Amino acid sequence: MTTTTTSAPVGVSAAAQLRTTETENSGRDNRPGWLFASPFLVLYALFLIGPVLIGLVISFFNTATVKNSLGGWVGLQNYGDVLSSSDFWKSMWHSTLFTLLTVPFLVVLPLLVAIFAGRINRGRWFYRFAFFAPYVVPSASVALIFAYMYSPEIGLLTKAFTSIGLPDPGFLSTPKGAWFAVTLLTVWWTFGFNFVLYTAALQEVPEETYEAAALDGAGPWQQIRSITVPLLRPTIALVLMLQILASLKVFDQIYILLGGGPNGATRPVIEYIYDTGFTSYRAGYAAAATMVYFVILVLISGAWMFATRRRGASA
After folding, report:
1. What is the pTM of this model?
2. Residue 203: inside a domain
3. Phi/psi class of residue 217: alpha, beta or left (left: φ > 0; alpha: ψ in -120 to 50)?
4. How many domains does the chain have?
5. CATH code of 144's domain
6. pLDDT recorded at residue 8
7. Quick count: other Cβ atoms within 10 Å of Cβ 95?
C-alpha cells in the first residue's frame, strides 16, 4: 500500500513561517513598552478607573457621606431625581454659559498672540515666557489675587471704574459682574496653555513658505490668512475641543472667587455635585449626577471626533 503525502508549496510554507516569526518578534518588541507603561497603567486603574466604578456602584444606592455602609438599594431613582432636578440643569446651564463666554477668547487670542510673538526677532523668549507664566500659578492664588482686585472698597479694578466716573460694576455682588470677573480671571490664567500649543505648531511651518509668499507680494495679513491659519487648522481644532472640555469642567476659580454666588447665579455643575455630596451628604445622588455629567461629556467628545473624522475623510 502506497501512502501519498501532499506538501504545501515551498513559497506558501515560507510565507507562513515568516508571518509567524514576525508575530513573535512583534510581541517580543512590545514587552519593553508594556513594562515602561505598567506603572502608569496601575496608577490609572487605581485613581481613575477605580473611582469611576465605585461611583457607578454608589449611584444605585441611597448612600450618605457620613455613613460607612452603602445604604439601601434604590436602583435608578437617583438618576431620575437628577434628570428631573431644576437645580442640576440650572448648574448645567451655568457651566455651558461659562464655556460660551471663555472659549472664543481662549481659542482666538492665544493664536493671534502666538503669531505676533513668533514674528518678534529680539526678546522672543521673554514674550513667550511672559504669556505662559500665569498658567503655572495655582488656582487658589489666582482667585485670591483677583478677589483682592475686585474688592468693592480697595480693589484695583473697581477703583479703575469709579475713578473715571463709572459706577461700581459689582464684580462680586451682581450676576453680570460676577460672570465678567470670572471670565477675565480665566482668560488671564489659562491663556498660556493654548499659547504654547499654537507656538509649537507655528514652529513646524517652514520659513521658506513665508519667504516665497513675500516674494509674490503677499503682506503679513495675507500670509496669516492664506498660510498660517490653513496649516494650523488641526491644532485649532484640538485647542477648541480641549478648551470646551476644560471650560465645561470649571470649578476652582468660581468656587474660590464667588462660591457659586451671588445667590447661586454662577454655580457650575461640578460645584453642584460637590455641594450635594459633601454639604447635603447625599453621596448616592451626587454619584448619579456625576455619571450623568460624565455621559454628557463623553457624548460631546464622541460627536466632535465623529465630525472631525468625517470632515477629514471628505477633505
Report:
1. 0.83
2. yes
3. left
4. 1
5. 1.10.3720.10
6. 47
7. 24
Q: Which residues of 174-203 are buried (b: 16+ CB within 10 A; e: fewer)?
A: eeebbbbbbbbbbbebbbbbbbbbbbebbe
Residue 21 grid coordinates:
516569526
Could you tell me what percent of the chain has a pLDDT over 70? 90
| Residue at 272 is within a domain | yes
At residue 65, the pLDDT reads 82
Write out pLDDT tens, residues 127-178: 888 889 999 999 899 999 999 999 887 888 888 888 888 888 888 889 999 9
* Cα radius of gyration (the chain): 27
Domain that holds residue 178: 85-281
Within a domain: residue 29? no
Question: Following CA atoms 76, 82, 84, 87 in sequence, which dihedral angle do they give, to the nearest 10 degrees?
Answer: 170
Mean per-residue pLDDT, 192-201: 92
Quick: pLDDT tens for 51-91. Answer: 889 989 999 999 888 888 788 898 899 999 999 999 999 99
Please answer whether residues 195 and 113 qualify as being in contact, where contact means their C-beta atoms are separated by less than 8 angstroms. yes
- Specify if 266 maps to a domain: yes
Asked whether the beta carbons of 227 and 210 are under 8 A apart, the reply is yes
Nearest to 128 by CA among 137, 116, 117: 117
* Whole-number pLDDT of residue 106: 95
